[in-house]
Structures are given as C-alpha cells and as structure tokens.
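Sample entry (1071 residues):
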Amino acid sequence: MATIEGTSLQLFLTAAKSSDKESILTILQVLGDLLSVGTDRRIRYMISKGGSEALLQTLVDTARSASPDYDVLLPLFRLLAKVGLRDKKFGQKALELEALDVTLILARKNLSHSQNLLHCLWALRVFASSVTTGAMLGINGAMELLFKVITPYTQKRTRIIRAAAEVLAALLKSKSNSRRAVNRGYVASLLRLHLDWHHRDAADAYVRIRRALLLCLRHIANLRSGREAFLAARGMEILFSSAQNCLDDRRLEPVISVMIQILRQCYPRSPLPLVTSSSAYAFPVPGSVPPEPPCALTEEDFEDDADEEVDQDSDSEDTKEQDDDLETDVNKLSSKPGLDRPEEELRQYEAMCLELSCSLEELESKPGDNLNFEETQDAEHYHIPPVTSPKQHYLTKDQSSWGQEREDMVQTSLLSMVKMGRSTMHPASKRGPGMNAYQNMQSNGLGIDSSGREAPDSQASLKQDAWDIDVISCPVMSASLSSSARPTETAEVDKLLQTHPKHIPFHDPHLYMAKARRTRSVADFKRMAFPDLWGHRPPPCAQSMLERKCGVQRIKIFEDVRRLIEPSDVINKVVFSLDESVLWKLMCVTSQCLVWEYDLLVNTDVNSSQHQQWFYFRVSGTRAAVPYRFNIINCEKPNSQFNYGMQPTVYSVKEALLGRPTWIRMGYEICYYKNHYRQRTAATGGASEKCFYTLTFVVTFPHNEDACYLAYHYPYTYTALLTHLDTLERSVNPKQVYFRQDVLCQTLGGNSCPLVTITAMPESNSADHLEQFRQRPYQVITARVHPGESNASWVMKGALEFLVSSDPVARLLRENFIFKIIPMLNPDGVINGNHRCSLKGEDLNRQWLSPSARLQPTIYHAKGLLYYLSSVGRSPRVFCDFHGHSQKKNVFLYGCSIKETLWQAESSVGTSNLLEDIGYRTLPKILDKLAPAFTMSSCSFLVEKSRASTARVVVWREMGVSKSYTMESSYCGCNQGPYQGLPEMTKNGRSLPSGMGLQFGTSELEEMGAMFCLSLLILELKSVSCSRQLLTQATTLLNAVEEALDHHLQRFLPKTLSFFLFFRFFFQINK
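Predicted structure, serialized as tokens:
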C-alpha cells in the first residue's frame, strides 16, 4: 500500500509541472484528497520528493500569467498552507522561488475580494512562520498591508481580519519587524484595536481575533523599546482595566493568559529596594578581600531583549535533566586520587575512634558530661521513652524502658511501620482554603495538652493567665545565673516553665537556654525564638497538600500592576529592617474586609550576595480572623514546591501555651512567580541579569494579640541539636549503649561541630567480646551541610533517636555496626540563618576535593576522619549525606555509577570491560519497599561534572565506598505510595479518599530516618559478608515479633502478613 501511494505521489508531482489547467486542477484535487486523510507521513513523503518546490513554482507561474487564474490559485493556496506547516524549510524555499513577492502582490490586488484575500493570507501565515522570511515580508511592506485589512470592530469579513491579525503576530516574532512596528507607531494602533474589539465583542464571539492582537503586543514587548512604547501609550492601564471583568471567565482564557504575559513583560524593571545586594552581616574571613562599594543602578544595567514570559499557572513541575553535565572521562570516574594531606595528620583522628583500642573500663569511663556547671544547674533531666512508641507515653525514671516485655514489641518495634504494613497512620486533615489550621485541629477534638487531657477553652485560658506575649515570645539570653539579675523576659519564661511544664521528647528548655548562651553568632544574637526554646510536638494528624486555587498567580500579578498604576494605595512604611536599606511596604486594600499586606526582603547568606530562600521571622500583635498577606520578593530559585501544594510553617505562641506547641503547615492563596525586580549584570559577575521571584501567601492567625513565627520549613537550630544530643545521652543505659559525643573541630565562627558515635557496649571484658566490638563495620552519616535544609536535621533526629531506642531492630544495629554521625556539617550557617553557605560565603558541599583546615574546617576534618577509617581498613559500608530538595517531592537517593553515567551520556567508551559493584542499587531498592515516603523512580546514579567536589562523589572516588549516597527529602511532601492515598478528614469526622498527597511533617521525616537505619540492617542481611550470628539474631527477632503479634493477625492480616513475607524474603539468603 505504501509503495502504491508513493508511486502515485511521484506521478502527480511530475504532472504538476504541466501547463494544462484541467490537469493541474485534477492533480491539486487528488493531492488534497490524499493529504487530507491518514497521517503526516504522506505530507512528509511529498516534501521529500520536492513537493513543496513543485507547488511553489506552480504558484509563481500561475500568478505571473497575464490573467491569474484563481480557480487554480485558491486550491493551490489551501494545499500550500497544509504542506507548509510540515516543511521546516518552506519559508526559505518560498523566498528562493520568489513566492513571497508574488503572494504579496496578489494580496494587494484583492483587498476588496474577500475569498481571494483570505487564501493569500493563509499562505502568508505559513511563510511568516520562519523568522527570516518574516523579516523579508516586513521589508516588502507586509505590515502596512495587514493594517489596511485589520479594521476596528465589525461583524463583517471577520475571517479575513482574524487571518490578517495572525499573520501580523507571526511577522512580529522577528525583532526587525518589532522595531519597525515601534518606529511607525503601531503599538498605539494595536492598543486601540484591542480596546475596541474587547469592549464591543460583548458575546465573546471573536476571542481569536482579540488574542491575535494581544500576541502582536506580546512579541513587540520582547524589545526594551517596545516596552517603553507600550508604557508611553498607557498600555498597562488599558490592559489592567480591560481585564478586570473577565478574570474568572474560562471562555476568555486564551485572551487573559496573553494579557498576563504582556503585563509581566512590560512591568518596569527595577532593582530591589536595597543599597547593596550583599548581606547585612559580614564576617572577617582570613585572607578575604573586602567587597567594592555598590554602583548605582541604571536602566542600561538590564538586558535589552526580554525572554518570553510564560504564565506558570499550570501544575507542571517536571524538569528536564541535562546530559551535557555528565562526566565522560573514564580516568576521572575510575581513578583513585592520593591523600590530600600528610599521612601523619591522620593520627589525630584516633582520639575520635576510641572504640578501636580502648578496654571495657575505658569505654565505660567516657569523658564527663560536656555541660559545664551553668548548663547542669539550669537543665531539667527527664527520662525519655523509646521514640518508636506510637502512643508517646512519657515514662519516669522508675518506669524504665530497658527490658521491655515481649508484648510491648507491638508498640515499640519499627517493624509495624514499614511501607506495606503501616496501621498507625493518622488521617490527613482536610480544610478549606481559608480555614485556619489550628481551628481545624480544635474542631476535630485534637487540642490535647501535655498530659494527654483535652485542653481547656482557649479564650477562657487566655483571660485567666493574661500572658505578656511580647515579653514571652522572644526572650533574652541572660548571661547571668543569678535569678535576681535575670531580665524580666527570662524570669517570665522561668515562671511559665514552672506552671506549664513541657514533656516534649528529647527537649529541655532550661538546657536549651544554657546552650544558647554559649553559641556564637555573627550578628551577636541576644534573643531566642520561642518555638526553639519551648519545643515542638508533631501535629496529631497529617496534613494533605494544599489544592491550588485556579488563577491565584494571575490575581497576584494584577495586584502588583495595581500598585504600579495606583500608587496611592501603597504606604511606604518600614516596619522592621536589619539596616536602613531594607524596605517593607505596608499596603491596606479596603473592600469587604481589611487585608494587611507586607513585602519582605530576605537577607542573603553572610559574606554573599545570593542564596536568599530560607526565612524564619516573627509577627506580633496579630488580629484573629484577619487575612495577612506576605510577599517575599527576593527569592532566587526559578520554581518552587510552593506552586505544587506546599505551605509554609507557622507556630503560635498562645497555642503553645495552651498545650499545643506545634509547627503546622498553614497558608492559602500561595504562589511563586517571577517578579519585576532584577539585579544588574555587573553584580552577577558578568553573567546575564539576575531575576528574582516572589513567594506570596495569606495567613489567618488563630488569636488576637498573639505572636506567631513563620518559616520556610520546620526549623531545627544548632542549639536544638546540642540539647538533643545531651538529652539523648542521658536517656540511654550506659551499660548497654555506647553513646559518645566528640568535637570534630571548631568552626570559623568559633562553634563546635559535634561528632557522635553509637554502638552497643561489649558484653564483657573478654578478648572475644572486645574483638567482636572492635571489628564491627562502620556506617557514616552526615547532614545539614546546607543550612536551609532543615528537613535533613529532622531526618537525622529520627535516625539518632531510633538508634538509641529499645527497639529490637535498633539493638541489632548497635550490636553489629558502629555509627559515626556528624549531624550538622555547617553549624555557622545554621546559627546565622544562611540558606546554603558557610561564613566564607561558599557552598561547603562543593569543597570536598581540596578542603582547607582553616577555611572549611568541618569538611576538612570530616574527610580526614573518613581517610583515617580507610587507612586502618575500616572504610564505611555505607556513607550517606542527608539533604533537602526544593524542586521535587518524596525522598530519594543519589548514588554513583560509572556505567550508568557513560550509558546516559551515550559515550563512545565501551563499558563491557569496566568492573563495577552493582550493589549500589540495593539500598534504594530496599528503601523503596520499606519507607512510605521513598521512591525509586526519582533516584539517580549519574556522576555530573558539577558534582565532582560533593561529598557523595569524593567519598565514592577517593575512599572507594561504592555505596556512597546523598539522600534528598522534599520540603513539600509525598505524592506516591501509601501517603498519596491517605484518607482526608472532613469537618464531621468522615474520611474521604485523597489524591493530593501528604505534606511532610516532622513525624514523617523522623520516620524516614528510622527507616533508613532499618534498611542498613536489611542491606547487611542481603550481603555476602553477613555473619551467621546476625542471621540467627534476625530470625530470632522475627519469630519473637510474630509470636507477640499472633493475636493481632486476625485484625491486621493483609497488612501485617505482607510485611513478614517481605521481611522473610530478605532473611532467606543462601550461604
């Protein structure tokens, strides 16, 4: 059949050169019939056989005859319009054969003949699709011709007007045509035409004409001169007013979307309202050069031609990965560099690995508590229960958790929490877009105080206590221990801690306060944030992702335009600033309700002019039930999960004092979009101008005169980590658990970087038991190299708490591994509120190749510790660096593979002779089965050139750790697996199926840390080197849990049994 069609097309094309009219008409009819059915394959075949040239030549020959025959020309134009859409070189062919001039001449001759003119315009539209031919048409007067055809509103000849407007829009894609249109005053003409058609087309019958006119303006606005002409013609005001009554009309979506794009393009670009783009704080780094004073910004600092803006109101968040960054040099991928320091330097790390040499007595006589007298005096000591207990019982010292009864395994074991066997999940809360999250918690009966009793009525409690929220919400860190010398704020907090005792696991406010006084910051902070001092308890129910309101982004863009054209609505009032260069705008818009709107500028990282994404601030004196809008106007990243269901976190001081000390996801009308602020080219190091983005959201606070904290994500401070580690150490039985805190090094800012060692104590002082203790393989985990990735700290918190718990799986892990953990690689960045950098203003996760002991001490010594373990033959089985990810959902791993990298890059280097341990995929596969939040589909094992100096790649290459990973946890949440199908709770308590997915809370992140630890055990069980003793212990544990759960199997048979089958699958390993 294909052969017959091809032969027929060839015959027709050959006959098309005939001068016989009847033959040509027959050929054109048959070609039209052939090309109107089937796929594009016929058209492409015709093009490959010279069909375009034959048709164009026929057009030229017919048009140049003494009396052009329109019986031939009209079907010829229709065929050309169809073929030209598929021929990429159609415009060039038309130019070479002089078909452009011929068609223009025919159009001019037929201005009063509708049918002939329409067909000419169809051909011109195809010709103009090529920028080159479009420019040539513009030179030959095509735009002048089109403006004769495009008239003010009329119900006559609308097909012709539409075609002419579409041809004009195609022509204006050419910059030369756009400049010509500006010079000839066509911008004002187009605005008048738009306004006339928009107002008089009451039935919206000619939307496509209106859209085509707007497309003309959009293409012109790509030029700076075009934008200037648009503004001079009051284009912003015209489009703003004409769009007011049609924003919610879905029929006008094609028109509104183009209006939005034009308004965004033409909004006058300006620098941020800052004197300098650098941070408000500076740290004197040894050897650094002081920055030059900032230059004044002018319009010339911004690029001439704008990129076309796209209305990002869609839900697409897919990003295409680039392959040109992949490393294809096999030598760089496979070679193992030598030490980057003298070998004798490695001896200093012996003191951090005492478990390799000390006796049992020496292990038991660990250095005393790191707390000094001040901390010991202030701290309240609580015994903490196992973290995995779902009921969160709080035990006293007499209710020791050591030696649990077998039946308690049902509550304490992690085995019931895996992906296929979860039965303790709380339903997700469902609330309307304006519903307060705290109100939702209370409406579901979830207001529970620290003792487990229902909290009293909030308003009554507030009246009784009459708290001074301004004093309480941001207390001063007193350096004095004398109660009489303490500030009023500290005394008030002490009183609250006595009357409102907190029993939050692994948190001690008194100890936190003591630790905070010893923390050094560049800004010399004197106050503490109340949530960090008071503590956080996870919300009693999961929170689903926010369903995005359609059109929220365009509404916000129109509000920005309103500010520009109606400046009287804006009050330029600074309500807070780090210095006089920071401007907040306070805007009141009066309609049915009062809306308070604030523009916020986030400080850049210390010693840097970029990396402004993380925020954490307090709002006091709030009004209940009043919507507050916050616009963070200098965000950097081109996209954000705030566009796809993520909400910021909020902590209410009054709610905390009422027994609900909880960070919750909150906010509505959230969107993230590019704004009109730019940074001059010189400030970006010669690169193109830097764009900024606005994160906007509305929050309704729960109480009057409250103080609320808002953050990018759940905060986790350096002081919280120190407090957490000390309380963890007190919670363990030192006879059973070896928990040691060391100082890896001192940071640039003078703070200590903790190093934690966790394993099980040897059973006795016998040589065999000590040998088994010392020969345990190492697992190395690090986190928080990027300060803004606080989710990594919550995952680390879950791992730490699980490893010291009484969970039988944790006990097995301790008895078979030694865990070396650096929970915070960038303490200075965390302390000073940085998003990504150290105090030197550099990304520490790009310094692993050649770190400096003076400038990057934490990286230098972390690498040194790994070098030391490798030098004594104790390289870790797994190295994993915990991170947070702002662009993707779920949790996933990045690993390293030579073969996968070369395959993906389509490298010519053969991979058949390359030897590679494929075990790097085992751990993520295990996690994909175990952890509800983990997804294998997002994992990648490619080695990029830009990641050559990261921890993952350097540990893989230089230490030879094949299972070297970065584990990324989403800031947003999970949209696959069990969490995606989580039921949502309605106001009346009924469950509805959910497809939105779950936003991560701290519980889910901590659970991920525990699941990661469990996966290390299963990984070992699957390995060839797994000891028979461990297999026996694991089998015994499984049997014990099965027996304890036997009476539960009838109720939870499908879920529980599926897990045990899975767990046995890993245990049944042929030895």
